Amino acid sequence: SALGKVFHHGIHDHDALGKPGGGFGSDWSNTVIGVVADVRNTLRGEPMPAWYWQNSYGTDLFVRTSVDPAGLTAVLRREIEAVDPNEIEVLQIRTTEQIVAERSADSRFRAQLVVFFAVLATGITCLGLFGVLTYAVTQRMRELGIRRALGAGNSQIAGLVLSQGARMAGLGVALGLVVVFWVTRYLSSLLFGIVPLDPMTLGGVAAVILALALLATYLPARRAMRVDPLEALRHE
Fold first, then answer.
1. All residues at 6 or more sequence positions from 20 whose CB lies less than 8 Å from its CB, including other chains
2. Closest by alpha carbon to 130, among 223, 227, 226?
3. Residue-level pLDDT, tens digit, the chain, 236 residues
4. Are 41 and 10 in contact (CB under 8 A)?
5. Which of 88, 127, 144, 174 is deepest in the core (most CB within 10 A)?
6. Is the pTM of this model over 0.70?
C-alpha cells in the first residue's frame, strides 16, 4: 500500500536528499494520505498514473450533488468564502459537463465537420443515383413498352428498375467498406467509446445508405410503371 509512504519531488539523486542543490530549488517531501480510483483526464487513451497535492496558490474543490448544479453556484461561493473572507476567494465554478465540453470542443468540431461532409456526400450520391436511373429508364423506354405489351405488370416493371438501383447501391456500399478499412486509422482520433471498425456502426450505416438509395430509385420506378406501350414503341 502507498498510504503513509513519502516521496520527494524535484530530486535528481536519491543520495542528495536533504542536501543543497539536490533538486530543483527545494526538496518537496510528500506523504501519501489517500489513494483514489482511476480517473480519465483526457478523452483519448487510458488513464495514466497521477498524483494530486494541495498548494498555497489554490486548489480545486469537487462537489457532487443530486440536484441541478447550476442552482448551487451562488450557495457554494458564499459558503466557501465564508470560511475565511480575507484569505479564500472562489475564482471559478464550473460543472463537469462544461469542463468536458471545453476539452472536447476541438474533437467535436472535427467530428461535426466529418458528419457534414458525410451527409453532403450521401445527398450527392442519392441525387446522382436518381439521375442515372432516370436516364436509364428513358433509354429503356422501348424495352419497357414491349414488356408492358407482352403482359408485364407494374410490379415486374418496378422490380427491373429497383433491382438495377439496388445493384448499383450494393456495389457502392461494397467499395465504400473497402475504403473505410483503409482510412479508418486516420479517423480513429475522432472516435471515443467505440472501436474504429465497429460492426454495428458499419452495418447500420450500410443499411441507411441502401435504404436511401432505394428511396432515390422510387421516382424512376414509378415513372417506369406508367409507361404507355404505344407511346414507348413510338419513342424511337
1. none
2. 223
3. 888 988 776 655 666 555 555 444 455 678 899 988 887 777 666 778 888 877 666 777 888 888 888 788 888 888 888 888 787 888 888 888 888 888 888 878 888 898 899 889 888 888 887 888 778 777 777 777 777 777 778 788 788 888 888 888 888 888 888 888 887 767 666 666 667 677 887 888 888 888 887 887 777 777 777 767 676 566 55
4. no
5. 144
6. no
